[in-house]
Amino acid sequence: FDRGELVHIQTPKGSLRKRADGRWARDARGQRTKLEGGEGGDLADCIIGTGLSGEKLPVISSLLDKQQYEALTREAERPLLILGGAGCGKTTVALHRLAYLAHQQPDVYAPENLFVIVPEEGLVRLTRSLLEELGMEGVGVSTIDAWFVEQAGKRLPELPTRLAVTTPAVVIRIKRHSAFCALLPMIAQQAGRACARRIDRALRTRDQFSSHYEGSDAEFPLQRLEAALELMLSGRTDAECETIRETAAEEISRFSSPLADRERLLGDRDLLERVVRDAKGEIPTSAVKRVLEHTRLQDSPTAEQQFADVPEHNKRAVDGLSLDKDTPNEDAGSIDVEDFALLLELDRQKRGRPISAHRSLRPYTHLVLDEAQELSEVELLILGQAVATHGSVTVAGDAAQQIGAGTSFESWDKVMGALGRGRAAPVTLETS
Q1: What average pLDDT does this structure show over 11-38?
Q2: What is the pLDDT of residues 299-344, one digit of tens each?
Q3: Which residues pair with 24 in a beta bridge?
Q4: pLDDT tens across 48-77, in order?
Q5: Are 107 and 113 in contact (CB under 8 A)?
Q6: pTM of the complete model
Q7: Which residues of 95-122 are buried (b: 16+ CB within 10 A; e: fewer)?
Q8: What is the dihedral of CA 67, 70, 72, 78, to 10 degrees?
Q9: Which of 101, 180, 345, 407 keeps 20 to 30 A from 284, CA to CA?
Q10: To 5 degrees, how large is the angle CA 135–CA 139–CA 143?
Q11: Is residue 397 helix, strand or coil?
Q12: Residue 124 burial class via C-beta count within 10 angstroms: exposed 0-12, middle 13-18, buried 19 and up
């Protein structure tokens, strides 16, 4: 019923809806999941639409209490931080807010411009089911790992694609720690200066290129390198310019290589030891050795590569699996999913281009992060870059429910700051 008028009938044989012209029609989408509740509730008259469909929300909206309803109808531009324990309705409110935004401003918050990030695959299926109930099937949903795999594959295609399966927990922890993230700007600047010095050595110009590099007022290293190159070309002959361009292009390509970046981040003992020191006791010193060993294993060739010259029938395992499966070398030729966020952020620190500037990613006008306490600072930085300048976010979580390996949650202010959305007054839901 809607304000006392019968508008929707569900039976085991189908679903009927009353149209705007007063005529009844069978639901073209067939039998819908029955969502009961709200008996005796005082918000049954709070109805919001779902985008261009013009349909009412499922009756689950009657289950929302006053606090929940006010949260989901908050101004679109304001970030929403929803806190509360398991079962309090965080996800329900967050997804209903998407429907509300799509109804209020369908041109800006069309389903294809919205995205939801959840921690694991089971929640992907649940979220898609809930969005379907809201008539929001076009909204993208992904786990955090799958999202980073996809973005890195498009932005950094040179990297390995096979994910490691036996990464030690302490290795995951050091890669996700905020102390590692904090060093990325310094690492980018060091890489730029090293590139400038290599160009000077190759051209035998002493420190001329480096001087131009240091004299540039550009913020990011790649921009400084390009500015230094323009100054080096000034007043040169065509032949000299060609030589300078070829040399600079070769070194800048090396500077831009994600493979070289990965080697720098994970193969430098001094750098890893600094991360451990900066973590102030939150990471054991043994982590450095474990990272170096794990990285060497990942960089080693697989058994199939080692025995490439052996006939296929002579190197086929009896169980049909790869030769390295369930052996100490199982992670040979692989990469950790945690590497992608570090490398994407380092790429931004070097180039000055956020991930949203890449043509393969359409910036989101609204992003929902569920169980956000599981996300690392560097992951949040990247996700924040994926939101359009005029976009907004809904963040849901509970600091008491951290279960992910390597999670180092500090505060919700830190989460919102990493997303680049500023502070948000939290809405704390009670379990009803």
Answers
A1: 68
A2: 998 877 788 788 877 777 777 777 778 778 889 999 999 999 999 9
A3: 18
A4: 443 333 445 444 455 567 777 777 778 888
A5: no
A6: 0.82
A7: bbbbbbbbbeeeebbbbebbbbbbbeee
A8: -120
A9: 345
A10: 130
A11: strand
A12: middle
The residue with tokens 């929803």 is: 82
Question: Highest-confidence range of 27-36, 104-113, 147-156, by mean pLDDT?
Answer: 147-156
**Cα–Cα dist 303/306, whole Å:** 5
Do β-strands 24-26 and 387-397 pair in parallel, antiparallel, or remain unpaired?
A: unpaired
Query: DSSP letter at 400?
Result: G
Instruction: Write out the two tokens for 350.
Output: 């070097």
**Tokens of residue 353, six digits:** 């281009």
34 DSSP assignment = P
Q: What is residue 39's predicted lDDT score, i.e. its pLDDT?
A: 38
The amino acid at residue 268 is D
Exposure of 66 by Cβ count < 10 A (0-12 exposed, 13-18 middle, 19+ buried)?
exposed
CA distances from 390 to 76, 195, 386 (A): 10, 36, 12
Structure tokens at 138: 């076009």
Whose tokens are 């099937």? That residue is 137
Place of tokens 């070769």: 250
Give 422 or 363, the one with higher predicted confidence.
363
Write down the residue that tokens 């009938």 correspond to. Answer: 9
Residue type, 70: E
Cβ pair 336, 171 in contact under 8 A: yes
Rounded-to-integer distance, Cα 329 and Cα 324, Å: 6
